[in-house]
Amino acid sequence: MCSCAKMAWEMVGVYRLLSSIPLFVIIVNLQYEVSEGGANPQEIDQHLKLGTQLLSAGQLADALSHFHAAIEGDPDNYLTYFRRATVYLAMGKSRQALPDLSKVIHLKPDFTQARVQRANVYLKQGKLNDAEEDYMEVLRVNPSNEDAKTQLEFIEPIRETISQTDEMMTQGRWNEAIELLTAAIEKCVWDPSLREKRAQCYMEIGEHFKAINDIKPTTKMRPDNTEAYFRVSKMYYDVGELEDSLTEVRECLKLDPDHKSCFPHYKHAKKLNKLYESAQNFINEGRYQDAIVKLEAALRLEPEIWAYVLRSKSKICKSYRELKDVPHAIKNCGEVLEMDEHNIEALVDRAETYIMAEEFERAVEDYQKAHDIDNNLRHVAEGLERAKRLLKQSQKRDYYKILGVKRNARKREIEKAYRKLAAEWHPDNFRTEEEKKIAEKKFIEIAAAREVLADPEKRQKFDNGEDPLDPEQQRHGHNPWGHQGFHFNPFGPGGGNGFNFKFHFN
Q1: What residue ranges define each of the domains in the chain, with the CATH number in brackets?
Q2: Do 111 and 119 meet the contact criterion of CB atoms below 8 Å apart?
Q3: Fewer CB within 10 Å, N side or C side of the chain?
Q4: Is residue 300 helix, strand or coil?
């Protein structure tokens, strides 16, 4: 095969491969040339050889460095520029590829493959007039070029689509505009203006994350695109993604440390993030009151955006629950649920607070709502069953009410209440047989309440809705006072009066 035919065949192969970039690593095997009269021809030849081998192996960055060196040594070899453009496009760097393709066309105007490839780049960038001009020039030289014919046919429909899109957007027909813009973007994948328009449409219909996904690529499509970084950062901030917002605004500040929009936004977001981090650290340490102080400061700093108001109030709700501050917990959890009625954790926190307040019916209602929202959450299912047991228990015997103490009473309070009631209802304090029978029954209830609440294990069972002295609820049955009877000192070990009673009953 003659060298000219061989060279033409290789150029066709490169052109066909270029049509798929930048989605795939481009493998090319070009026959290299060195311009006559170029400096250090052996060294240039070596750079070209290594660059081509690295390009074939997919090592694009290393290949690029060798093509740089080859062009410095021989700035008039059009094939070297074409190879470097190939690498740039494979790396997704269309803006860097364009000057090299233009240089190829300048050095060798009849190299139609380079002109078609430049037209393809223009089309992907949305530069329809430039693309059209290149395709038409190719067809003027070679009317049978199928690639140029095919691509040229897309340009006018794209123009019409964009025009229709602008009209739809002015009429508020956002979904229809999105459909047309998506079709245009499939051809003009590197056109930032189309993505910006579609992002606006997504924002109008509340699809914020889809809008973000459209704006983010534009940060690379335009040089030093600080406005895009700021816009993405603000969009992330508005949907409550504070960390992502900070990441994007830092990229803006790398390009312009004093950016009039990015810098104040960064200071505000950073301060808010620091408050949340401090609050979470306090929560992890069990310092709930300190956490509330930070969260209330966050509310003052950002009182408008729904995501942050909800986040702050949710954590305040949980902190008050942990502090066993029933009124404040119910108030703040209620405010969360007014904002988001399907907030499962707020429903759980309020349900647990209702349990503390012994409002078991309300606790069951909240747990049931949470379970209806998501019936796969184990802690919700377990909480619902416990609330139901406590409700059932409250309709029977309530040891806390018998002793007149709160559910969070300490053992010392329980013992004190027991001693007082045991002395008050001691059967010897009553004269008639009927009064003694009533006192005896009451006295047994008081003793049973003390037995359960003074024992941590039994108390935990009772708090979970199980009566440890109820034979029906015990696996093997249980007589709370032993098999024959129950012996106890009503004043406990070392009690003041030192008298014992023994009651027998079935």
Answers
A1: 41-162 (1.25.40.10), 400-464 (1.10.287.110)
A2: no
A3: C
A4: helix
Collapse the DSSP code of 487 into the 3-class scheme (helix H, G, I; strand E, B; otherwise coil) and give the result.
strand
**Of 297, 241, 293, 291, nearest in space to 269 by CA:** 241
> Is the pTM higher than 0.85?
no
Helix (H) / strand (E) containing 274: helix 262-284
Render pLDDT for 64-90 as a digit per residue (tens, 0 to 9): 999 999 898 889 989 899 999 999 998
Give the Cα separation of 137 and 143 in Å (integer).
9
* pLDDT (tens digit per residue) in 149-172: 999 999 999 999 999 999 999 999
Measured between alpha carbons, how far is residue 322 from residues 330, 356, 395, 464 in Å?
A: 12, 11, 27, 17
In 3-state terms, what secondary structure has residue 337? Answer: helix
Q: Among residues 390, 342, 389, which one has the least CA distance to residue 366?
A: 342
In which element (H, E) is residue 18 found?
helix 3-18
Torsion on CA atoms 275, 281, 284, 289, rounded to nearest 10: -50
Structure tokens at 259: 């950016």
**Burial class of 237 by CB neighbour count within 10 A (0 to 12, 13 to 18, 19+):** buried
Give the span between the Cα atoms of 74 and 424, in whole angstroms: 110
Q: Which of 270, 279, 245, 221 shows the shortest CA–CA distance to 93? A: 221
Rounded Cα gap, residues 214 and 224, in angstroms: 17
Q: Which amino acid is at 313?
A: K
How far from chain centre, in Å, is Cα 110?
Answer: 53
